[in-house]
Amino acid sequence: MTDTTQSRTTASTLARLLDSDIAWNFRHSWTARISSVLILILFAAALFAPMLATQNPYDISQLLLLDSELPPAWVEGGDPRYLLGTDEQARDVYSSILYGLRLSLIVGFASVALAAVVGISLGLLGGFVGGMVDGAIMRVADILLSFPAILVALLVNGIARGVLPPDRHADAAIWVLILAIGLTNWVQYARTVRGSTMVERQKEYVQAARINGVSGMGIMMNHILPNVLGPVLVIATINLGMAVLTEATLSFLGVGMPATQPSLGTLIRIGNEYLFSGIWWVVIFPSVVLVALVLAVNLLGDWLRDALNPKLR
């Protein structure tokens, strides 16, 4: 294929995308546009945190204890060097939010990816094979659904911390959080994919693939999976906000990221301890960023659910 042909193919694909119903819906939905812009701003802030931050809050050598507990720059007693003030360890709140946002998003994306892989795999397997395999998977899913997600995450977190030696807890905290949140949220993917798979496996194109000698794994991966990804995309978008919120909850409870590597939840927990001492900025600003992120992701997920639902077009 020549470069000219590739360019024409790319242009044609882009044109079809811009003329699609989803693109039209996006252009005419102020909720989708505003939430997308807010998400892009927050993602860019997390991605370029080392360049945007005035200090590295994880580097002790950059902290000056004499600058601890300074109010925001526009408040009396504030320092222009610290736009949103400092905490009790003289960490710049603005820089801490940028680095904490990065950690929260890493945990959110990784846990959603883990939950999606596990849930889609088990859902495909259960819906396509059926029988005892499907029954066993769904009974495990039912058991997990009978407990609040935060309790399951706390259980997985506690088991992982019990297995690891105490001196490894801080280094492994982010991996433990990803594992705990990911193993909590796979059920939604599994149940959704299972239901769609049970419908798809009865259709003619699947029967034709069987007649042509395509293996069961080939049918699941090449024929059924592409047709069940629509609902999965919606679940993953909404689950990103829930995963970030779960990480913040675990960190607020003291079983998430350590104080030396604070996420948004850890910053809120630290700030909450000093809230009644008048140091309100340490808890207020991280809370506002967390609320903005979760709200924007949920609004975008709600729009995407409606946009992908042909009955609502």
From TrEMBL:
Family annotation (CDD domains): TM_PBP2
Cellular component terms (Gene Ontology): plasma membrane
Record flagged with keyword Cell wall biogenesis/degradation: no
Membrane topology: Multi-pass membrane protein
Alphabetical list of PROSITE patterns matching this protein: ABC_TM1 (PS50928)
UniProt-annotated location(s): Cell membrane
Transmembrane annotation, as ranges: 34-53, 103-128, 140-160, 172-189, 224-245, 279-301
One Gene Ontology term from the biological process aspect of the record: transmembrane transport
Domain of life: Bacteria
InterPro entries noted in UniProt: BP-dependent_transpt_permease, MetI-like, MetI-like_sf, OppC_N
SUPFAM superfamilies per UniProt: MetI-like (SSF161098)
Keywords: Cell membrane, Membrane, Transmembrane, Transmembrane helix, Transport
UniProt record similarity statement: Belongs to the binding-protein-dependent transport system permease family.
Protein name as annotated: Peptide/nickel transport system permease protein
Organism: Roseovarius azorensis
